[in-house]
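2024-03-11 09:14:02 DEBUG pipeline.ingest accepted 1 chain
2024-03-11 09:14:02 DEBUG pipeline.ingest length=307
2024-03-11 09:14:03 DEBUG pipeline.predict start
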Amino acid sequence: MEAGTNRSRRGGLSRRQAITSAALAAAGLGVLGTGLVLRLPQAAGEAGPGANTPSPTPSPTPDLLAEAQTRIEAYVAALGERITLAVRDQVTGTELTVGTRAFQTASIVKVDILAALLLRAQEKGEQLTATDRQRARPMIVISDNNAASALYQKIGKVAGLTAANRTLGLVETKPNVHWGMTTTTAADQVRLLAAITATDSPLAPASRAMILDLMGQVDKTQRWGVPAAATAQTTGVYVKNGWVPDDANGNRWEVNSIGRLVEPGHDWLVAVLSDNHVKLQDGTAMVEKAVTYALGELRELPAVTIP
């Protein structure tokens, strides 16, 4: 169910670009092309806070990362101006964002609502009530709107979600009194996914496990989007999608997908946001093309592991 809200070509780098990429690599960032940022894995001897593992394999050269970045940016741009993408690999540390525009969440915000509900219970030293659990499951698994509205009310609507997002590390999400009209960016949705999966998250292990368990059981009719990029080696698939016609834009469709794909050597967190689709099927196809292409390119990079 969904909210009815009212509202390859492989080109090389020029000498100047190569020098820039090398300089940025020294700072841990690779930037090339409009609206896309690629965070490079840490090199050996640059262990992050709390790292106690051996030095990693040297990271891919800036040239390889920059070339992949350029191709991904060009591919997404060819799909249309109304789509953005963010990816983070929690194993290698590679991170990229294509586009910074904010979109309405539609039902992907239901993951955020559940995270806020669990934080609220933690802060009070309480467990979720039986009613809360009965509502949380259909809200995620079948995207039930009535359950979402009840739980949004429970967390304190805009004020509650705003406070929770501050704790979770989201910086570009603006809750709306109508939950489906909350706005967010692809980068912020990856931050949310990180809060759900990282061991240093403000969410307790049991809370993170509950959210992932429900995202792993989403009804098969709603398992499109991020799961399209899974391969035979993928061992874990987690997703939540959002789709709704926007009556302020001629009833064109907003289509979003956030999720996690776990596989040997990678732990992908992915968010794709889009709108202005004449048909829902157009939006789902575009989202799946974007995530499949991006992960296909990133999987070709030399495997590395960071602390």
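2024-03-11 09:14:41 DEBUG pipeline.report Strands lie at 29-31, 36-39, 83-89, 95-98, 103-104, 183-184, 236-246, 252-263, 266-277.
2024-03-11 09:14:41 DEBUG pipeline.predict end
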